[in-house]
Amino acid sequence: MLFFPDFANMTLMSFSTSTYALIEKDIRSEVRTRYALNALVMFVVTAVATILFALRSDNPSVELLSGMYWVVIFFTAMSGLSRIFVSEEERGTVLVLQLIASPSVVYFGKLLFNSVLTLLLTAAVTILYLLVFPGFVIKSYDILFVTVLLGSLGFAASATIIAAIIAKAGARGTLYPVLSFPILIPLLMTVMNATTRALGGEPFVNAIGEFQVLVGYLLVMVGGSYLLFDYVWKD
Amino acid sequence: MYGRTEMKLVKLGAAALITIVIVAGIAIPTSPEPTSWFQFPVIPGLEEKARNIFFHVPTAWTTVVAFLVSLYYGARYLRTRQADDDIRSVSAASLGFMFCFLATITGSIWAKFNWGSFWNWDPRETSIFILLLIYGAYFALRSSLEVEEMRAKLSAVYSIVAGLTVPFFIFVMPRIMSGLHPGAKGDASGSTPVAQLHMPPNMLTVFLLSLFGFTLLFVWMLNVRVRLARIEYQQSTHHA
Question: In sequence order, what DSSP letters do the residues of B126-184 get, joined into one string?
């Protein structure tokens, strides 16, 4: 009962309907205000432009490119993904949400919304990198696809629980990357490795080890966050 | 936490053990062919620098112990909601931060003389750096939360989330990255999560005494800190 507070009296059906309703609400409010999306897109453009200025006409290596690819994704995500809980606090809608939805619905709804946002963000960064860096040529599409998919999901998993924590704290903007970075390092190191493999044109089997780490990370983070979310969410 | 007599014993034990370790670790001479227990063998490549193992490894060990103790009391706070568990958790964390800093410094100096530079981003160096970051983030989070219950609750959750990533650093990263510490990928004696101890018996004895002594030192320091933090907590609630 301590660990599974509300699955007992909820069918899978009502769980998925309420989760869907929560995501729909978040998407609708996002479409109306375009708060996160606009900021994220502009952030990506600014970050990539800064890198271009810094490099000038240098031809960066594959390792450097795959590293900077995730650096841009990391800082962009850190600028926008906390919005999901911070906006509820700012608009004072936390209590309503606590009344009408169970914590696990809130957690999985927010996690899925953040996952979609991270995937969109990663796609945008990938397209931009393909356009502006001649050295960024994807030679193993399968590796990059799996890396981006698992990496974005793992990213969203950590970002969501940290967002829930910092929504209650002061100085949120600075605190968010500070708290997330140590948690995300195993993920970042692994996806950087795997991206280097994808750009280097290695066969799919070479990256299996990295994918195992990514799957493990995703499962541990989602499982752990789900169990802990109750304590963060309820006052 | 414990009775006064027990703590007195812990204090004396820590003082005695660490004194023995300092004296023995520094004073026992090395010799290429040790003939008695009173001589350490010369380890090729390490020579006199091998003595740092009696001080560097125990600080790193105490860091991990402190992190686990902090995690344990944090998790216990989530169940009991007793302010005392939070006091123990944060006291252990602040001591862990100090030992983490000491392990980084002693390790970095050792690395300079053995491997040629203060920092090499070897997997264990990366792990201790991340542990420093986690402690830094933990205290940054605590100072940005004003309500006591909220501070205790959220910092406990954060240390558990951070604890979830620790297995990745201990078991996964040393395997996929090559490193300089024993037990890393490419080590001739085999890559293991915890470095195997290939030490002559007299070094091993001093080393284990040191581990034990540092653990006792941690227990005693934790006890002092917790008692101090309790008094501070009582005073702050009295005046408020």
Answer: HHHHHHHHHHHHHHHHHHT--SHHHHHHHHHHHHHHHHHHHHIIIIIHHHHSB-SSTTS
Let me know how long chain A is: 235
Bridge partners, residue B99, by sequence: none
> CA A160, CA B110: separation in Å to the nearest integer?
39
Amino acid at B87: I
pLDDT, tens digit, 9 for 90 and up, residues B168-205:
877 777 666 666 776 665 555 554 544 556 677 888 88
Instruction: Tokens for B77, please give them.
Output: 């706070």
pLDDT tens sequence across A111-137 = 999 999 999 999 999 999 999 988 888
Query: Token pair 């059906």 is at which residue?
Result: A13
Q: Is the pLDDT of residue A186 over 70?
A: yes
Write down the pTM of the prediction.
Answer: 0.87
Distance to chain A for B71, nearest Cα, Å: 13
Rounded Cα–Cα distance for residues B63 and B102 (Å): 9
pLDDT digits (tens, 9 = 90+) for A92-111: 888 888 888 888 899 999 99
Instruction: Report the C-alpha gap between A157 and A136 in whole angstroms.
Output: 27
Strand partners, B185: B178
Residue of A nearest to B131 (CA): A182
Q: How far is CA A199 from CA A69, A121, A144, B8, B175, in A?
A: 12, 19, 8, 62, 23
By the 8 A CB rule, do A180 and A162 touch?
yes
Task: Report CB contact under 8 Å: A179, B158.
Answer: yes
Q: What is the CA radius of gyration of chain A?
A: 19
CB A66 within 8 A of CB A74: no
Give the pair of three-digit tokens for residue A152: 């974005």
Q: Which of B148, B154, B155, B176 would you mutate first to test chain A, the one with the most A CBs within 10 A?
A: B154
Please answer yes or no on whether A168 and B164 come within 8 Å at the CB atom.
no
As a whole number of angstroms, the distance between CA B35 and CA A96 comes to 77
Give the 3-state secondary structure of residue A59: coil
Residue with tokens 């799957």: A215
Point out the residue among A175, A209, A221 whose CB comes nearest to the CB of B141: A175
Specify the DSSP class assigned to residue A92.
T
Q: In this complex, which of A165, A186, A235 lies closest to B168 when CB atoms are compared?
A: A186
Could you say which DSSP state residue A207 is in? Answer: G
Handedness of CA B142, B227, B60, B67 (dihedral sign): negative
Report the distance separating Cα A19 and Cα A112, nearest Å: 9
